[in-house]
Amino acid sequence: xxxxxxxxxxxxxxxxxxxxxxxxxxxxxxxHAAPIFSYQFPASWNGTGTTITDQSPAGHNATTTxxxxxxxxxxxxxxxxxxxxxxxxxxxxxxxxxxxTNATIAAAGGFRFDVSINWDGTDNTFHSxxxxxxxxxxxxxxxxxxxxxxTATLRFGFNDDPTMGATxxxxxxxxxxxxxxxxxxxxxxxxxxxxxLSGVAKLDVNGNTITENVTKTNxxxxxxxxxxxxxxxASSGKLIEFHGDIYNPSxxxxxxxxxxxxxxxxxxxxxxxARRRSS
Length: 279
What we know:
- The chain is of the alpha+beta class.
- 17% of the residues lie in helices and 34% in strands.
- The chain has helices at residues 15-30, 102-108, 219-223, 259-278, and strands at residues 34-38, 51-52, 62-64, 69-71, 84-86, 92-94, 110-119, 128-134, 138-146, 151-157, 169-172, 177-185, 197-205, 208-216, 227-229, 244-253.
- The strands form two sheets. Strands 1, 4, 5, 7, 12, 13, 14 and 16 form an eight-stranded antiparallel sheet that branches. An eight-stranded antiparallel sheet has the order 2-3-6-15-8-9-10-11, with no helix packed on it.
- α1 runs antiparallel to α4.
- The protein is globular, with a radius of gyration of 22 Å.
- The two termini are 19 Å apart.
């Protein structure tokens, strides 16, 4: 009887062992990713009451501020019955505080803001509209609003500091849907002695990406504030509200860079392809 001998890769590792390694790396990496919240309308809030229910397993609900409303203006491709959160009259803030501390981010490998927005072209008295706001320090917002000219700047900001995230900006126009993703990847960095955390930030708007090296201080952690959607995270009333529609806002931590996983998976696929050709 012929016995099958496990084929080995150039490093002397069997294909089975390499596959196990790839799966192990994938499992370890994915284990670090976790939702902070995901709000979908009207499932999270139907326009009545004050509680916005988190649709993710994290269970981080929010409370409305001011008088936000729901609207049927949604991005193309949204499912039937979907609605957007209009924050001209107010927004929301998570019930819990300190949900994105530097220790939490470092343990996970980074964080991600994900949302679709449609600016209505109007301004507020602060000329700055918060879309997703962690403690007033890290945020997605529009600024440099010129309602007369119909232009504004979208920014992924850090530490509420003009020099951090200075290039993470892009112009937007009103009555246009933008899918916006802001990510911060620690690149494996640990929290420094002063509490800060360095990494690479990316602002992706409708598939166009801007990248910048940034250092996130622990200012937001020390403030012990909530995460706001559509408005500033620190006020009990509407303040610095975004004028427009917000669709499916979510915040999550992200896994550490999976360089080893990608390399092992690529090698595995190449070896499996070679094995098929030789069979």
